[in-house]
Amino acid sequence: xxxxxxxxxxHIGLRTVKTGLAVLIALLLDSLRPSAMPIFAAIxxxxxxxxxxxxxxxxxxxxxxxxACGAAAGCLLMLLMxxxxxxxxxxxxVLLIPLCQPLRIGFAVPLTCIVFVSxxxxxxxxGSPLSYGVSRxxxxxxxxxxxxxxxxxxxxxxxxxxxxxLFREYLQAYPAALQELLCRGHYPDIQPFGERYxxxxxxxxxxxxxxxxxxxxxxxxxxxxxxxCQLAEKMYMSxxxxxxxxxxxxxxxxxxARLRAMGVEVADAMPTPGQDEESRVLCYHLKNLLxxxxxxxSLLALPKxx
Length: 306
Fold this sequence. Notes:
Elements: H1 14-31, H2 38-47, H3 53-80, H4 85-100, H5 109-120, H6 129-153, H7 160-183, H8 191-208, H9 215-243, H10 253-262, H11 277-300
């Protein structure tokens, strides 16, 4: 018997509110300009409302370039084929769309094509294609500028708390894995550790790429987070090495004490560790993992709020 899926709860997020506000301001500002077409300002404000400011900056540059390209292409086709507008639009789109990729404006293809078609369909009695294309470029630029400003001023995206939480979850996953490995002899699945580590790298890269509020201070914080990622990588490599051992040795007394302090319930009366190769390799990788774990834990306890 199939279970009925419950609809997702209705939710209005902050970015949704910022998008509505940016569109409202862009429409009001653009409507004050003569020969304006505010729909292009609204499109620009929506397009630039990305999750991060670095994405918004890239989107603004791409959309501006796409708008200029579409307007220029429309003006050129109307100069060459002024009496065959529909044919010019069909030929122009076939030529224009593949051109967007080499120009690195692939993400702006929809807006590029909209501006191109709009310029081609413009009534000549209302003005030349050039003046119309320039006007549409200004409409879009106003929307992009307003959208970026709203995105930057009203609580810009900050994933630092998320990174801190991911680091702590990463640390908390290791005691259970070591418990399974050393006390029950079950080799852990290291894939989740690799996925968590790669997500940390991605979030740190996003954090470092944000232009606001202070590029210098953010670079300092990003260097600190990259150092934490290096420790996380050392832990991941160590657990992978332990999971790759054919035969596990026995941890010595020092390692056993550190494991208990970490929360791994190692038996008090473990077999006496020998001097065999497996035990030495086990203790080597355990020491690397526990050293990185303790150091990372101490770093995350520091007050490092951006």
